[in-house]
Amino acid sequence: MRILLALALLSATGSLPAAEYASLPGGRFASVLPADTKTADIVVAPFTLRREPVTNAQFLAFVKTHPQWQRGKVASIFAESRYLAHWQSATVLGADASPDQPVTQVSWFAAQAFCASENARLPSWNEWEFAAAADATRADARSDPAWRERILNWYSRPSNAAVARVGGVSNFYGVRDLHGLVWEWVDDFNALLVASDSRDQNDPDRLKFCGAGALNLRDRDNYAVLMRVAMLSALKAADTTVNLGFRCARPTASGNTP
Amino acid sequence: MILVRLLAVLAVFACIAPTRAAELPGDSVYRLPVALADQDGRAFHLADRAGKPQLVSMFYTSCQYMCPLIIESLKRTQKAIAPDGQAKPAVLMVSFDAQRDVPTHLKAVFGQRKLDAATWTLAHTDAASVRQLAAVLDIQYRALPDGEFNHTSIMILLDAQGRIAARTEKMDGLDADFVATARKAFAQSALN
Q1: CATH number at residue B123
Q2: pLDDT by residue (tens digit) across A3-49?
Q3: Inter-chain contact A109–B152, Cβ cutoff 8 Å?
Q4: Does the predicted model carry a pTM greater than 0.90?
Q5: Which of A117, B12, B19, B79 has CA atoms 20 to 30 A from the CA of B190?
Q6: Across the interface, do A10 and B169 touch by the CB < 8 Å criterion?
Q7: Is A158 exposed, middle or buried (0-12, 13-18, 19+ CB in 10 A)?
Q8: ipTM of the complex
Q9: Which residue range forms the structural domain that includes residue A140?
Q10: Which of A77, A108, A203 to mutate to test the interface with B (most CBs of B within 10 A)?
Q11: Contact state of B172 with A205 under an 8 Å Cβ cutoff
């Protein structure tokens, strides 16, 4: 009890304002990864999602209060050697990481720990995909060629270009920067089983998949979303990349954790 | 002033926490705090398994086809590592199915598959820990609406300190490289 009180006081005295979360209604949704691996829609429970990705400033505040997540202290099973390598030091951002850029070079475990520190969790893939289907005026803009084109244009930018600051245009739900800024971790990144061509076909000795086998991707021409799936499914939990950040989610009071 | 005192309280709590985990190498899977229950309902922590190498895999009991294959493959590999008369390596299988694979369920399968009580452990943990454990072991899985799971079938050798020493996806026959690495690991741990 005393610890809880102390933690509440600590967060109240922190210099950063509490992160803003937007409410999303959830509902039936045609995911590119069908629920039954064939065609079924998925059902997303109501949830709230951080309006913006976690920034360098916010992650810096986190590692100061959670020193076990500082660069150099964290065990390699939880974050590889490039973890926060662009910061000047374990507790100083320096010239290459501005406070209002999204934090990148963070592992899945570090992202999970950050979200837990603000009583949240990482969004599931389906939650992320649900939120990211919107544009500024529509809940689901995915069938609009212009929507796809904009996202693909971002993918084609060189990955060594500096990451922009957070604060893009709000989408239909009031969430910003889902596209065009960074890739984002999801809680079930290791659930996105996609049969790469080599796995099942070339080596019949390797019975790799149980159950119904690898996922059947729906909407195959939606590269804008499938690129995300491909990238996430290739990651390991300790991996970090220069373009990979995250945001957090919470179930709404009435909704269940998916 | 109050804050300073509370910080001091927090600091004290923070100092009590470190345990054996701090002595393990940074790349040890046992760094992950996971609370499990075995087929007899006994609670244990993943890090309790430190000290000897072991074979680890993940499965779920309602799996009709692939999971019996994984179990048979583990049995075969266990035997190949320790020929007659030698002490068999321990095997830990953790279920993906946090909802249904409670200890009583695991116990039933333990009997059906005639598992060796001296070396085998089938274990349950909560859904969030399943996700984390699969993440450190680099195993992919996905719950399907009909209660089944898609998952990669992988057998892992953890060394005495919990580092991944070998892994194989070969579930029919034997993976000779995996067995060779495991023999060395167990021979070495027997010397220590």
Answers
A1: 3.40.30.10
A2: 444 444 444 445 688 889 999 999 999 988 877 666 778 899 999 99
A3: no
A4: no
A5: B19
A6: no
A7: exposed
A8: 0.84
A9: 20-251
A10: A77
A11: yes
Contact at CB, B173 and A213, closer than 8 angstroms: no
B176 in reach of chain A (CB within 8 A): no
CA distances from B40 to A36, B37, B99, B121 (A): 33, 8, 17, 9
Give me the number of domains chain A comprises.
Answer: 1
Question: Are residues B104 and B77 in contact, defined by beta-carbon separation less than 8 angstroms?
Answer: no
Boundaries of domain holding B70? 2-191
What is the tens place of the pLDDT at every residue in B16-63? 334 455 589 999 999 999 999 999 999 999 999 999 999 999 999 988
Q: Quick one: tokens of B25?
A: 């190498």
Does A65 fall in a domain?
A: yes
Burial B15-31 (b: 16+ CB within 10 A, else e): eeeeeebeebeebbbbb
SS (H, E, C) A201-221: HCCCCCCCECCCCCECCCCCC
DSSP-derived 3-state class of residue A23: strand
| Nearest beta carbon to residue B69 from set A192, A207, A212 | A207
Contact (Cβ atoms closer than 8 angstroms) between residue B140 and residue B152: yes
Number of domains in chain B: 1
